[in-house]
């Protein structure tokens, strides 16, 4: 589909940006693909492994990690 809009030059770039955003939105909605299916296998396996480690209690909290690096780099 092609839409032609005549406007003043000062609004041209703004309308082009809007048209690009609308086109991207329409294209995105047409695909409706689950992001998981788009991930490479090594990424999927890393995510699944990390979920398993979390279930087993093998993780560090944000506070623990920050304390470690603050000590390491004298912050």
Distance between the termini: 58 Å
How many H/I helical runs?
A: 4
Largest sheet: none
Quaternary assembly:
single chain
Write down the Rg.
24 Å
**Topology as a string of helices (H) and strands (E):** HHHH
Average pLDDT figure: 83
Model regions low in confidence, pLDDT < 50 over at least 5 residues: none
Which band does the percent of strand residues land in? under 5%
- State the total count of DSSP E strands: 0
How many structural units, i.e. domains?
A: 1
Looking at the structure, what is the overall shape?
Answer: elongated
- What would you call the structural class? mainly alpha
- What is the helix content? over 70%
Structural summary, described in words:
The protein is an all-alpha fold and 75 residues long. The protein has one domain. It has 4 helices and no strands. It has helices spanning 9-31, 35-38, 41-55, 62-72. The longest helix is centred in the N-terminal third of the chain and has 23 residues, at 9-31. It starts with 8 loop residues before the first helix and ends with a helix. The model has no long low-confidence stretch (mean pLDDT 83).
């Amino acid at each position: 589909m092609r839409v032609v809009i005549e406007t003043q030059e000062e609004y041209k770039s703004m309308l082009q940006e809007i048209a690009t955003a609308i086109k991207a939105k329409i294209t995105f909605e047409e695909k409706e693909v689950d992001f998981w299916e788009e991930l490479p296998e090594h990424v999927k396996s890393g995510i699944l492994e990390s979920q398993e480690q979390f279930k087993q209690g093998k993780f560090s909290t944000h506070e623990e990690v920050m304390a470690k690096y603050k000590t390491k780099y004298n912050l």
